[in-house]
Design goal:
Elements: E1 3-7, E2 9-13, E3 16-22, E4 24-25, E5 28-29, E6 31-32, H1 39-43, E7 49-56, E8 62-64, H2 68-75, E9 82-89, E10 94-99, H3 105-113, E11 121-125, E12 131-134, E13 140-142, E14 146-153, E15 159-162, H4 172-178, E16 188-190, E17 195-197, E18 202-215, E19 221-234, E20 237-241, E21 246-249, E22 254-265
Antiparallel strand pairs: 1-6, 1-21, 2-3, 3-7, 4-5, 7-14, 8-15, 9-12, 9-14, 10-11, 10-13, 12-16, 17-18, 18-22, 19-20, 19-21, 19-22
Length: about 270
């Protein structure tokens, strides 16, 4: 029963960077700050979620993630449902979230072949504080000038549909098979976000005004700082928390969070 501040696995990208704040995935494990041990080695098992900080200087590729069944069969990995909490965004920031209605697999293949996919993407404006839900099967792309917290299934499966003229590998054949063309999976902006419950994880916005006391039950939890500073205390540990940092709390652990902060609990 303990708490650990995490050191992220850092991944530089052509469009910006990712920090994997909480990860046991084989593609990159975060590190327990106090002793330098990989979290995956310490737990000796995989967490069901992965938490990232993503900063985009350019648009990410237009992409889609498969559900578990497809990913298990073809990628030996989990599917990927995710959500984005917007930390910072330039004034006119947009992202892709979904496709226009009326498409199916065959129509999408023709759209891609004719290089017309940009005409069929749904763009939404975003600002700090917005929460966007991206279930598996949803076509999406983070636009430039955005920083966000991503909570997702522990998976590294991404199929690129389109890459804005950049010469990276695309995955058209698999992409068109896993897209949810009906748009009936609840994707999009969560208005007045406080709590988001999905089949794979629960995400909650938490405000600490001095003191917050809690206890994990039979499941772990994590806190990632949106803004503010403070401490998390458990038994004989007192860990400083600053913006964009993540703390992992083991099951059956009492804790106190002290300070003036807003956090994402996952």
């Amino acid at each position: 029963m303990s708490i650990f501040k995490m050191k992220p696995y850092y991944s530089e990208k052509i469009w910006g960077y990712e920090k994997w704040n909480l990860s046991t995935h084989k593609a990159g494990s975060s590190i327990i700050e106090e002793n330098g041990e990989l979290l995956s080695d310490y737990l000796k098992s995989d967490l069901p979620i992965l938490i990232k900080i993503i900063k985009s200087e350019q648009s990410l590729s237009v992409q889609v993630h498969p559900e578990d069944k497809f990913a298990n069969k073809y990628e030996n990995d989990n599917g990927k449902t995710e959500c984005w909490y917007i930390l910072d965004a330039k004034e006119d920031a947009e992202l892709v979230c979904g496709i226009k209605p009326g498409l199916d697999k065959e129509k999408m293949e023709r759209v891609i072949k004719n290089n017309k996919i940009e005409d069929y993407l749904e763009f939404i404006s975003v600002k700090p504080g917005d929460m966007i839900y991206i279930p598996a099967g949803t076509v999406h792309a983070i636009g430039p000038g955005i920083k966000l917290i991503e909570v997702q299934q522990s998976s590294d499966v991404t199929y690129r549909l389109y890459d804005w003229g950049r010469k990276r590998e695309l995955h058209i054949e698999k992409s068109v098979q896993v897209i949810n063309y009906e748009g009936d999976n609840g994707y999009g902006k969560i208005e007045n976000f406080e709590v988001l419950e999905t089949p794979y994880f629960k995400v909650q916005k938490v405000k600490v005004d001095g003191l917050l006391q809690g206890k994990t039950q039979d499941k772990f939890c994590s806190f990632t700082v949106i803004r503010g500073n403070g401490y998390v205390v458990s038994y004989d540990k007192r860990i400083e928390l600053n913006p964009e940092e993540t703390v992992y709390i083991e099951p059956n652990t009492k804790y106190e969070i002290i300070g003036e902060m807003e956090l994402i609990k996952a």
